[in-house]
Amino acid sequence: MKNEPTINIQSSNYSQESLGYARVEGPNRFVSRRLIRFGDCDPAGIVFYPKYINILHEVTEDWWLRGVGIDVNHMIRSGFGWPLVNLETSFRKPSFSGDMVSFELSISKIGRTSLGTHICCRDDKQIRLEAHLVQVLMDMGSHRPAIIPASVRERLEAFQGGCLENIDLELPIPIMRNAL
């Protein structure tokens, strides 16, 4: 047909692993690599900032499970959660649909009831976003902060110090009212 559009249909250069992974990559360094998708973007073609907030949450949830060995869903079912109480974000450069970026999470502070983390989103050349998050361990029944149990603190410190091999991540961590 005369007015048929020309569409580039070449296959992508993405390998299966390059489409995304989440893993510990050294002391105090958890990396979640992911593809920015069309649905993450606004009509201008860049990541819509509320989508970044959701991605930060997903990265944090992946880190709890794969980096520290704690399933947040089990924790919530046992009556505890880690709500976000503070978020500071700097948007440095735009990300576009099709971009491959890495979100790098590190612990900045372990408090009595709170946890501070830093997440940096980058491609191979530049920082796209930096975020500082503070979460508080909360008793979901009373909606009051709870003291971080020694078993959880041990895993957080092991991640921070690069000593995860000394922690059996297969063993479940009991987070129950009587454990606090």
What does this structure look like?
The protein contains three helices and nine strands, in the order ββααβββββββα. The protein has helices at residues 49-68, 72-77, 150-161, and strands at 20-24, 30-35, 80-81, 84-91, 100-110, 114-122, 127-136, 138-139, 144-145. It has a six-stranded antiparallel sheet with strand order 1-2-5-6-7-4. The termini are far apart. Mean pLDDT is 85; it is low at 6-12 and 171-180.
Mean pLDDT: 85
Report the major sheet: 6 strands, antiparallel
Q: Can you tell me the overall shape?
A: globular
Q: How many helices in DSSP terms? A: 3
How helix-rich are the residues, as a percent range?
Answer: 10-25%
Q: Give the percentage of residues in beta strands.
A: 25-35%
